[in-house]
Write a structure and sequence with these properties.
mainly alpha; elongated; single chain; 3 helices; 63 residues
């Protein structure tokens, strides 16, 4: 699998490292990937673009 880089605010990354370790993840990257997969799965089940927009609004990602 290809790797991509994402810039994350230092304070947020510090929290990610802390909670990844407390939760038993092998790395912060594994924790981040799991969090993203969970969030994406919430909207991935939508059948149409309109449903996706509604779900994103409901989750607070767009207004």
């Amino acid at each position: 699998m290809a790797k991509e880089k994402v810039k994350i605010d230092k304070n947020l990354m510090d929290k990610v490292r802390k909670y990844a370790k407390l939760s038993g993840y092998s790395s912060a990257e594994e924790f981040i990937a799991h969090c993203l997969e969970k969030e994406i799965s919430k909207i991935d089940e939508a059948d149409s673009e309109e449903e996706i927009k509604k779900k994103l609004k409901g989750l607070g990602y767009i207004s």
